[in-house]
Amino acid sequence: MTYGDAEFGFELLACRWAELAWPPDERRDSAVFVSRQLGTQKRRWDTIVVECDPEGFAARAQFGEDALDSDLLHVVRNAPAEWTYYRDALPHPGYPWRYVREAIHRAAARGVVEKRKQGNRIEIRRVAPYPDWVRRIVAIENKPDLDASAARALSAQLEHDVETALADEVWVATAATGASVEPALLEDLPVDVGILTLDFSRGVVADAADVVWHPSTLDVASDSDAFDADEKADRRLEIAERAYGKGWRSFHETMRPDCRGFELRREGRALVPWCATKECGQTAAQCSGSCAEFSPEPPQWRTGGWPIEGGPGKGIKQLLEGRREWVRERETE
Ligand code: SF4
């Protein structure tokens, strides 16, 4: 295996596997998409799998490919079918109306709501009903080297996840070692958290996963210490929206595909970054503006001869963006 020892590489492979084969051991009957490094201010999950109602997911596409933030959601979800003065149409947001007006202008600029002026009043009308598209949110913590001490270190975070119950299920994904899972490991992790072993020795293939421990289904519809039920529903939708906009291939936005050492390598059915200069699977932190070995791709790569317009760096970005788009479309078929 050339990739997967670093947590970052493992995470990308885990995301690709989830995109391909989630849920483990079951038939897929939802549209599924995957994102990474998202959550709340207090807790960021490594991998997020969003299971969606296929029709609702297709209907969500009418609101564009970018995420709707909480202010835009307030407008879009409550926009009426007929032209209405916005203060009559929208519930009071709990903050000044001028922020709502600003959100209406942003929403109209993005084409996710219509607005017009009648006298000095702003009226709004929806472009389509905002669908009920999210079925379940699954949080996965990636820990390729999950020994007993790593499990102990993780357990407080995982207990927090179980208590807040923002996700329907919480899992830990670890690299398969071939050895049986130590009982101590199971003791150190909360009993409600599932454990998945992933074997990427053949790269990403659909049957790379084994369920070692099944998770509990968490109660996302009730109050928890951190959120009441309504807040929780709002947070869950915001997380799903951010996941929808981001996907998991957005690493190209922070890494340096414009470096001559940057390559994408195939690992089974995944493409993951590879640094040809250092001959390793680089992390996002290493592959940044501060990398001492960064070397810009030569200008001639950007002109003539290169099969993708703009040089390989730009081509890699286009490829990854194209795949993000392809996954959205595939899940709506
Ligand atoms: S040399 Fe540095 S910037 Fe270039 S691909 Fe490797 S890690 Fe990234």
Can you put this structure into words, describing what you see?
The chain has 333 residues and is of the alpha+beta class. The chain has 3 domains: 7-53 and 133-246, 3-Layer(aba) Sandwich (Trna Endonuclease, Chain: A, domain 1), CATH 3.40.1350; 66-126, Arc Repressor Mutant, subunit A (Orthogonal Bundle), CATH 1.10.10; 250-331, no CATH class. The chain is built from 9 helices and 11 strands. It has a 6-stranded mixed sheet, sandwiched between helices. A 3-stranded antiparallel sheet has the order 3-5-4. Strands 10-11 form a two-stranded antiparallel ribbon. Strand 10 and strand 11 (270-275) form a beta hairpin. Helix 3 packs across helix 5 (97-109). The two termini are 34 Å apart. Iron/sulfur cluster (SF4) is lined by residues 256, 259, 261-262, 275, 277-278, 282, 286-287, 291, 293-294.
Summarize the structure.
The chain has 333 residues and is of the alpha+beta class.
Spatially, the strands of the biggest sheet line up as: 1-2-6-7-8-9
Assembly level: single chain
Choose one word for the global shape: globular
Number of helices: 9
The topology string of helices and strands comes to HEEHHEHHEEEHEHEEHEEH
Give the overall pLDDT as a whole number.
89
Secondary-structure content class: alpha+beta
Which second-level CATH architecture of the largest domain applies?
Answer: 3-Layer(aba) Sandwich
Number of domains: 3
Helix content: 25-40%
Largest sheet: 6 strands, mixed
Highest-level CATH class of the largest domain = Alpha Beta
The whole-angstrom Rg is 22 Å
InterPro entries: DUF5787
Pfam families: DUF5787
